[in-house]
Specification:
Order of helices and strands: HHEHHEHHEHEHEHEEHHEHEEHEHHHHHH
Number of helices: 19
Strand order of the largest sheet: 8-3-2-10-1-11
Number of strands: 11
Helix content: 55-70%
Oligomer: single chain
Amino acid sequence: MIFLTRAFLSVIRNFRKSCIFFFLVLILASVISTTIFINQAVTDTWLHLQRNLPPIATVKLDIEAWERFNDETGMIHDINLRTDLIHKIAALPYVKEFDYFSSGIFYNPHLIPYKDSAVNKNTSLDVAFLEKFWLVQGVQNPNLLDIQEERIELVYGRTFTVTEMNHLSMVILISETVAHLNYLTIGSTVQLRNIVFDNMDGENRIFAEESYTMEVIGIFRPVSGEKNGENLQVLENRIYAPNHFVELAQIFQNEQQQNLNESGDMMNIQGANLSLENRFVLYDSQQFLPFKVAVEEKIPPQFRVVDIENAFVDVYSALMTMDGMTNIILWVTVGISILFLSLLITLFLRDRRREIGIYFTLGEKKHRITIQICAEVIIIAILAIITALFVGFFISSILSEHILRSNILVEQSIHSFHELPFYGLSFHGSVIFMFLGVGVGTILLASIIPVMYVLGLNPKKIMM
């Protein structure tokens, strides 16, 4: 084992060259380490998003396809997806949970709404007249998606139960601001009127109406409009109710509209005009395309499946771009490291030709000299690689979140995720082993040319 002792002494005696080699390996290994850690941040962020922010799809009307379909068939087709189709889509194995929303407009002249002075100042509409009508949004999922997506937060009371969703229940959720303006609390009641008007002679006369006494079971607070991109006045004045209630109100509307048409009068509806929106939360982003194919086989041709705001697609695209970039940087750095280190080790060995010739003259075997040279390289390289592990972790911890945020939030213009969760860097065993494997492998590959140089030396020519 005397050749290993010689290797250790050689590192100490050639201190200047050892320091040059150490710092070059440290720089190159730090780049590799930083790249691997950033790649880990990208991968962990993506896995974290998949677990906590699954993709949300919706089936929407394609206006151009709808108009073309009407022209081809000569009929006016529905602009809303039927509820039975929504439930069939929800039964697909890709769907984790779903919700659909039926919007209705109800009349209450005594309920005081929230007013945004800036919005009302710039409108030419009859604000006083519009303030008497309230948007009621029907929901199907007791765990409101608007709460899950942080459009609103529940501050008092509760949301709807499954029983209230499936049976006619006169219960609502209102905003905290509207509750304060009207001195309403949990258990208070609100009157909503479902009115069909006719405008014969230009006057809005009531043709038919139903009145409902609704109990307040929950009070919510809208999340900042800057985060959810919705009009704060709309959110503050929104009322949530079970879909079943809104749909039954629409049945009354349809019946009275038919009676109004049969009487020959002109009709102007100001009541609960049903409009359906839907959302399907998927288990995995990779299931979006098969989900889209499966759904479009079930729905009429005027509808299309889309990713809401394409947010998840944008995030996936940005993260995969970064993953590709870090992989390119990693392998380019490895290639440059092999080239530079090979040349440097070879140059150092050329200066030690006489030393190597003496070993040969003394009868030392070539493989022992080769092991000694590799040992010298490995001793210095291991110290540099271990140091580079911590240097790379420190640098990547500073750069990774900044790079992720700038690429995803700025370049991709993501607005649907209020605060994109970045998974913190950590010393995963797999990452450490990967870095050590890449680092040591690079050093060993870089030693091939110098070893071949040593094996090719002729002792007689060296000593002449």
